[in-house]
């Protein structure tokens, strides 16, 4: 297709993409709002035509991209494949688990599809592999849903999990590979994986299991030590994003479970001291802070990433330059950490804001699930998963738009990367498992009620 | 369980707050800084391709429609293939070095600068409507950006540039309209030829008028005087005996050449530019009120103007300031730093009854068919002082030119009011090089012109009155002659 025809098409269609994404966001927002103010319970919610809208989004974006340069049928097929994969995942899971939060699943899929489209634009090979990761992620999601729902004795595995977590991180320290400034990768065969991602799930389980029981502070010592060790190890790997995430996870869960302001305050104090110390001890921390305070001062070196990201965002404007019309490839790490800037450039800041909003809604619904839980352990599990996802997406988006200093974490569900995709889906699986449990308990109660009522009536007739 | 729920809700509120702050910051940053990020010279998206440009940038014209910069196609023999190929380059008019810092350049090797960088949004046609963009893509062989008409006058630029270069010293002149904020001329010297950028000497590329930070010296006394008029009710009745040298906080402040001015009031003190008077006055006013007045004149502000990028001026006084530092700040020494453009705005605001207008550089943006897409809209930037106080200060500035240090600016053709300044460049006294300043406006009764002149590195014995004032007079006379 000639260049100018493609450009006209992309220029016009950008409004269409903005519309579809905003529609999904607004629908999800309204539904979440109604649920929060209590006029709508989780089980009477309807997802309406959101699946249809998402299929439309995936297919039309992929068809547009397939028309760039020469008409490429493979990309069109990929569009259909993505739609099929998404529909299969969504329908399959919601058929077998009536009690899960369907909106969370749909919002996650919206993020994934936006990621597929952007990756296809940036590098066609990655997009296809990302779809594979999506399908594997769905299996992980299913696994954790079932695990959280039906496996009652997960706290027995606590010490095993702790050992596995420490072992994984130790292994990374010993044989890890340095990619992009942090030594947090292990190579297995042809795959690179990031153990610090998997430790997130371990941490959620370990913390929930430990904190759900009432104990004195001294008896909680193992979990304190475990948290300290994992944080220290990721700091040694220069993975500051992960360290921040683990720390937030610990502080929030600990505070929620125990209301112990003393320890929470001490942890906060300790972390502040650690942060200040690391500023003076480590060169890479100072570089990050300097680049955050004024990326333009040293735009050729330290500030380059952030400055390029801001330039890309500003070039896109509210509705974007149009898919395929910008040059997001000049942003460093545009497929992983900086994919948000690439999305803002080509699809527009409005889409970017909608994506931030989607993360917020996922968090809101995750925490609502925690609030509906009947046991402390379940509440903490759902809370841990929701907080983990929320903090991670906040950290990376905040870093990309220069709200907070940049730390290299991936953008859940959107960035390219297997470890990130699997773990993020795992966390969603935990939330869904708890939601399903809530649902089943509620149903049992309702049945009980029904039986009681029936017998009560019988009694009355006598 | 109840406790857990309560705490969960607390965390929920915290996290939602974080997210709302993120979204809020994101929108704020994009709205206020977005165009600056976009126009950064590191943005390769808007670079003009020399071989096959997707979009040909529009022309840059001066306010009378004379072309300052345009795009030309040249057939150049490609050494590899041996065939003639079309190359597109930006061409600047023959005396472009006189407007070089305003217009800047757009060069594949050296990047972008000036209007060529900051207004690339218009020049490359990014402001076109969707329909116009589609039309151009569908029916034109090559897309075309829009023409930007600047508020500067080419003739004035050339004349003032000649005056400054005759001095053979680094310097800068800004001439603007106090009522609308239009910049009529903005000169920075040393300058360069944008048609032939080969070598620069250290700071040639710096636009001193907007990017150069200098101590203001005595012209800062205008701010101190404005603050005194605002905050000390009977300031005009108070007199002070200048001994030529006083001690503040153990350190000496002395007048020019140690001359004792004797008994004087504020008007006489400004006229002779008495250091001891204003140093004492600054201490009398106090840091808080002086800082407030300074902020009213735009000090310490980010200067997010829509048309031009200006380095913020700094007035770094706070509760920790010592009396001595405060005294030095009140006479424009110490750590006070300003740009010439800001000083022109300051003079303009006094001339314009205390209202400071936002400086404007874009007169019009003209589209492909000659349709005007954007026209200059004067914007009030700040109300620096009250109408009455502005007029009192105006009278004082007239006296400076009539009988005080600014005598050399007196003109037979037009009534000029102003203030001179001689600042020590280094903070250490041993540095012998001084900065000569003159700021002012004309005609004094109803100003249509405001000016700031800065000449760097004048030798010992030379002052703002002897170096900058005559230059300001000539520039203003030329502008009046041209009908401004």
Largest interface: A-B, 50 and 38 residues
Largest sheet of chain A: 3 strands, antiparallel
Q: Give the C-alpha Rg of chain B.
A: 25 Å
Give the count of helical stretches of chain A.
16
In percent terms, what proportion of residues of chain B is strand? 15-25%
CATH class of the domain at 217-363 and 378-481 in chain B: Alpha Beta
Number of strands of chain A: 3
Unreliable runs of chain A: none
The CATH level-2 architecture of the domain at 217-363 and 378-481 in chain B is identified as 3-Layer(aba) Sandwich
Oligomer: heterodimer
Total beta-strand segments of chain B:
21
- State the shape of chain B: globular
Q: What does the largest sheet of chain B look like? A: 6 strands, mixed
Intertermini distance of chain B: 78 Å
Total number of distinct structural domains of chain A: 1
Mean pLDDT of chain A: 89
Gyration radius of chain A, in Å:
23 Å
Instruction: Briefly note the structural class of the backbone of chain A.
Output: mainly alpha
Distance between the termini of chain A: 83 Å
Fold blueprint:
The complex is a heterodimer of chains A (462) and B (484).
Chain A: H1 3-36, H2 50-66, H3 73-96, H4 102-122, H5 124-150, H6 158-175, E1 177-179, E2 182-188, E3 191-193, H7 195-211, H8 221-236, H9 240-258, H10 261-281, H11 283-293, H12 304-316, H13 339-347, H14 349-372, H15 376-400, H16 418-461
Antiparallel strand pairs in A: 1-2, 2-3
Helix pairs in contact in A: 1-2, 1-14, 2-3, 2-4, 3-4, 3-5, 4-5, 4-14, 5-16, 6-7, 6-8, 7-8, 7-9, 7-15, 7-16, 8-9, 9-10, 9-15, 10-11, 12-13, 13-14, 14-15, 14-16, 15-16
Chain B: H1 2-38, E1 55-56, E2 60-61, E3 67-77, E4 84-92, H2 100-103, E5 106-107, E6 111-112, H3 114-118, H4 120-123, H5 130-139, E7 143-144, E8 147-150, H6 154-167, E9 171-176, E10 183-189, H7 208-211, H8 221-231, E11 240-242, E12 245-248, E13 251-254, E14 262-264, H9 266-272, H10 275-285, H11 287-296, H12 323-330, H13 340-351, E15 355-357, E16 362-366, E17 372-375, E18 380-383, H14 387-403, E19 417-424, E20 434-442, E21 449-458, H15 464-481
């Amino acid at each position: 297709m000639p260049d100018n025809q493609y450009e006209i098409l992309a220029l016009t269609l950008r409004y269409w993409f903005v519309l579809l994404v905003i529609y999904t966001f607004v629908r999800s927002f309204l539904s979440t709002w109604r649920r929060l103010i209590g006029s709508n319970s989780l089980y009477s919610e309807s997802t309406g035509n959101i699946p249809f809208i998402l299929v439309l989004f995936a297919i039309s974006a992929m068809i547009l991209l397939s028309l760039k340069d020469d008409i490429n049928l493979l990309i069109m097929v990929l569009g259909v494949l993505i739609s099929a994969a998404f529909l299969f995942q969504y329908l399959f899971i919601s058929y077998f688990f009536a009690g899960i939060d369907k909106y969370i699943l749909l919002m996650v899929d919206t993020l994934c599809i936006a990621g597929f489209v952007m990756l296809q634009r940036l590098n066609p090979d990655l997009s296809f592999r990302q779809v594979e990761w999506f399908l594997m992620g769905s299996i992980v999601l299913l696994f954790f849903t079932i695990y959280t729902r039906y496996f009652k004795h997960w706290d027995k595995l606590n010490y095993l999990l702790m050992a596995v977590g420490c072992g994984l991180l130790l292994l990374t320290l010993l044989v890890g590979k340095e990619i992009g400034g942090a030594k947090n990768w292990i190579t297995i065969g042809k795959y690179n994986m990031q153990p610090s991602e998997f430790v997130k799930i371990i941490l959620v389980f370990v913390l929930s299991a430990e904190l759900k029981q009432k104990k004195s502070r001294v008896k909680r010592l193992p979990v304190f030590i475990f948290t300290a060790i994992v944080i220290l190890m990721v700091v040694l790997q220069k993975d500051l994003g992960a360290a921040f995430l683990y720390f937030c996870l610990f502080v929030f869960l600990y505070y929620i479970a125990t209301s112990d302001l003393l320890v929470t305050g001490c942890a906060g104090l300790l972390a502040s001291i650690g942060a200040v110390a690391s500023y003076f001890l480590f060169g890479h921390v100072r570089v990050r802070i300097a680049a955050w305070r004024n990326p333009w001062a040293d735009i050729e070196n330290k500030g380059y990433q952030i400055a390029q990201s801001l330039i890309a965002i500003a070039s896109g404007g509210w509705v974007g330059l149009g898919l395929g019309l910008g040059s997001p490839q000049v942003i460093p790490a545009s497929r992983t950490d900086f994919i948000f800037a690439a999305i803002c450039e080509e699809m527009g800041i409005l889409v970017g804001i909608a994506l931030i909003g989607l993360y917020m809604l996922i968090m809101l619904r995750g925490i609502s699930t925690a609030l509906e839980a009947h046991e402390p352990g379940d509440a903490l599990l759902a809370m841990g998963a929701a907080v983990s996802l929320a903090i991670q997406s906040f950290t990376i988006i905040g870093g990309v738009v220069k709200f907070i200093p940049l730390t290299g974490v991936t953008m859940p569900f959107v960035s390219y990367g297997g470890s990130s995709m699997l773990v993020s889906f795992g966390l969603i699986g935990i939330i869904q498992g708890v939601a399903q449990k809530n649902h089943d308990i509620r149903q049992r109660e309702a049945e009980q009620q029904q039986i009681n009522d029936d017998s009560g009536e019988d009694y009355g007739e006598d | 369980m109840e406790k857990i729920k309560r705490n969960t809700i607390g965390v929920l509120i915290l996290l939602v707050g974080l997210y709302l702050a993120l979204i809020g910051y994101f929108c704020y940053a994009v709205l206020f800084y977005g165009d600056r990020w976009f126009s950064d010279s590191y943005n390769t998206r808007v670079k003009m391709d020399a071989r096959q440009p997707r979009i040909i940038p529009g022309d840059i014209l001066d306010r009378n429609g004379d072309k300052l910069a345009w795009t030309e196609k040249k057939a150049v023999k490609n050494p590899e293939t041996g065939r003639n190929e079309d190359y597109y380059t930006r061409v600047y008019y023959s005396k472009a070095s006189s407007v070089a810092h305003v217009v800047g350049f757009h060069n594949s090797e050296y990047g972008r600068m000036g209007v060529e960088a900051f207004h690339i949004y218009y020049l490359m046609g990014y402001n076109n409507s969707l329909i116009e963009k589609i039309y151009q893509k569908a029916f034109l062989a090559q897309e075309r950006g829009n023409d930007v008409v600047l508020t500067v006058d080419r003739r004035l630029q050339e004349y003032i540039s000649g005056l400054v270069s005759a001095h053979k010293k680094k310097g800068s002149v800004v001439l603007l309209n106090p009522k609308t904020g239009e910049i009529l001329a903005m000169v920075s010297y040393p300058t360069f030829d944008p048609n032939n950028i080969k070598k620069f000497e250290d700071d040639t590329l710096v636009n001193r008028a907007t990017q150069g930070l200098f101590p203001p010296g005595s012209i800062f006394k205008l701010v101190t005087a404005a603050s005194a008029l605002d905050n000390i009710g009977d300031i005009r009745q108070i007199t002070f005996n200048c001994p030529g040298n006083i001690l503040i906080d153990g350190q000496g402040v002395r007048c020019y050449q140690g001359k004792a001015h004797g008994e004087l009031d504020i008007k006489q003190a400004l006229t002779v530019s008495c250091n001891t008077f204003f140093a004492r006055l600054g201490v009398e006013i106090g840091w808080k009120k002086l800082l407030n007045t300074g902020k009213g004149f735009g000090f310490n502000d980010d200067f997010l103007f829509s048309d031009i990028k200006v380095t913020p001026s700094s007035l770094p006084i706070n509760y920790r300031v010592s009396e001595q530092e405060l005294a030095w700040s009140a006479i424009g020494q110490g750590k006070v730093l300003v740009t010439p453009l800001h000083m022109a705005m300051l003079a303009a605001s006094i001339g314009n009854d205390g209202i400071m207008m936002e400086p404007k550089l874009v007169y019009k943006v003209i589209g492909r068919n000659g349709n005007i897409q954007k026209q200059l809209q004067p914007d009030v930037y700040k109300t620096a002082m009250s109408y009455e106080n502005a007029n009192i200060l105006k009278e004082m500035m007239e006296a400076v030119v009539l009988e005080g240090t600014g005598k050399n600016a007196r003109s037979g053709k037009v009534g000029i009011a102003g203030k001179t300044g001689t600042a020590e460049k280094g903070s250490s006294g041993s540095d012998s090089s001084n900065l000569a300043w003159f700021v002012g406006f004309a005609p004094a009764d109803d100003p249509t012109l405001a000016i700031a002149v800065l000449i760097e590195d004048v030798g010992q014995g030379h002052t703002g009155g002897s170096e900058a004032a005559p230059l300001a007079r000539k520039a203003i006379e030329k502008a009046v002659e041209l009908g401004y």
